[in-house]
Design a protein that fits this description.
Keywords: Membrane, Transmembrane, Transmembrane helix. Belongs to the sodium:solute symporter (SSF) (TC 2.A.21) family. One of its GO terms (cellular component) is plasma membrane. It is a multi-pass membrane protein. This is Sodium:solute symporter family-domain-containing protein. By secondary structure, the protein is mainly alpha-helical. It has a single domain, classed as Sodium/glucose cotransporter, CATH 1.20.1730. Helices cover 75% and strands 0% of the residues. It has 27 helices and no strands. Helix 4 packs across helix 9, helix 5 packs across helix 13 and helix 11 crosses helix 17. The longest helix is centred in the middle third of the chain and has 50 residues. The chain is globular. The termini are far apart. The N terminus and C terminus are likely disordered.
Amino acid sequence: MSFLQPRGSGTAAASSADANSVVEPALPQAVGYVVVVVVGFLIAFIMVFATYVLKKTAGEDNRKTEMFMTANRSVRTGLTTSAVVSSWLWSTAMLGSTLVGYNFGIAGPFWFAAGCSPMIVFFALLGIACKLRVPEAHTLLEIVRIRYGTPGHIVWIVLCLINNIIAIANMLLGASSAIAALTGMHIIAATFLLPAGVVLYTFVGGIKATFLTDYFHTFVITIVICFLTIKTFTTPEITSVGHMWDLIAAAGTQHPVDGNQNGSYLTMTSKGGILFGIIHILANFGLVIMDTGFFVKAFSAAPQAVVPAYITGGIAYFAIPWCLGTLMSFTALSLEGTTRFPTFPRRMTSTEVSNGLVLPYAAIAIAGKGGAVAILLIIFMAVTSTISAQVISVSSIISFDIYRQYIKKTATDRDVIRWSHIGVVFFGLFSACFSTALHYGNVDLGWTLYMLGVLTCPGIFPTVFTILWKKQSKAAAIISPLLGLATGIAVWLGTAYAFTGAITVAATGETLPCVYGTVASALSPALYSVIISYARPANYDWADFRKEKLALDSDAASATSTTPVKTPELSDEEKAEQRTSYEANKAKFKHWGKIAAAWSLATFFGHWVLWPLPIYASGYIFSKTFFSAWVVVSIIWVWGTMFVVGFYPIIDGREQILQVWRGLASTGTTTPVVSDKESNKEISVERQGVD
């Protein structure tokens, strides 16, 4: 039995043969091109200008690799918090949470949010562990190479690239379909134009530009979401939260949900909802842990900012899919039978739902063209911000882990920057081509949302063990993710064939095959790794991580010299200094690690056990009072999120803002670019930890 409606392809207007199912775009096609092209390039030029200003006033020179890739490891808590929320605020988070809310009722958005927050907080533990053990790392893959050598490094390169490709395709498919439905813009044009502006500002600004756009985009998105929380209940057909309860209760009677308690939309007792939740949390752990972009942001944060930023970001993020998914999916269910709804007099087709059109249609229903513009804007903001993170992630793999390691070991700072730029352009173009191929293969947002865990999960436990468990052997690290990937794919395809008698896009997108495949892909590598590790035990010395110098020297001589300079090994004096610094700051980092571990456990048990399971097990159908409290709390929480991501970075970064302002106000004064000596001092501070 499938708990997700059958898949379709393309936009509603393009894919339906039934003329009665065609929905006219709410906005002219020109609006789509203006937002995607004009606004996209306007933001890109603003970010390029911001990069120039930061270079002139704060000495942040993006021609240096340490600045381009890791922002000199100095990003403060506020900006990191905003970037953390943005990293998980994919266009699919907004489109997907409303999709599952429409399909499963109130359980869908909750499980969507609960599938994200625990791993955001858990990443604080991984981030602070990396800061302690490999303070000069630029990518996750450098850590893997040092511990497991070339074979392990190559395996992780493949796993991480698969993860990035699937992730960006998932984003582009959903965003392009929604933009095409809202404006009539050709879906392929949207697919190719969306990454264009992103490539431009990432090419110039590197990771700091990504942080700045993360902040701007996330602030705008949360403002729009807060606007929708008000607009929903000023619609004549939905006068209050209690009135919405009446409408949803009636919808459950007219269109009962298969697998829900009494077919109601107002219950956490939903088979489809909890199965989606299992897929979602495992797939998200894979997407995050195997995405080097998340590690790059952790490496870029100041040591004292990592744990507070990820904990705060995890708490703040939860409200977005929970509140937005609940309100917009229930708005769609409430208004489907009225003339306000774009599909009236019919319900949404399975193709429209699977393409993620619940959110734009609901926004149009409550706010008309203004709602369409709002959704177009936040989808554009979300997809471009996350594309930037994916592009910088793949760029880091190409420059540091492929070029610097296997093509030119003696690469200079300039060489690495050049290949970082090549990686940015290449992956931006490749992602558009790959998403286009999936579109013409009848693959849509719903399919990728369910199956991506099969491909992204095999590296979860081997990666976590690499950072946190010294007993994992080299053989276990190399073999277990490959066996896990093979196991997951075999289970996925095998169960799809067993349930449907065929292996097609529709069959492999069914819920149960995706659940079985994702669970096998995620958990089997843990078993394989433990067995192999104890058969051939290891006892890795964490100090070995710090024996290799990973930071690039970028002095003026090497920048202008035609003779490549090999990255030097640490001197005996430097090694002794590192050992002393490590021991001196070990307790401090362990303290942060304990806080991160405690919050990770608390978040998981709170969001997955203490809060939802009693409601699920009781078969409780929400009363009007309980539903009202549920919605009101989610609205208050999302407004709090808006203040955290919008104003906290300004307060926390006020010193640098004033520095930039004074630099701009000073005429005839030039702030000197950070010298190599100062740059090396930054690295030294990073090695030593925080005071």
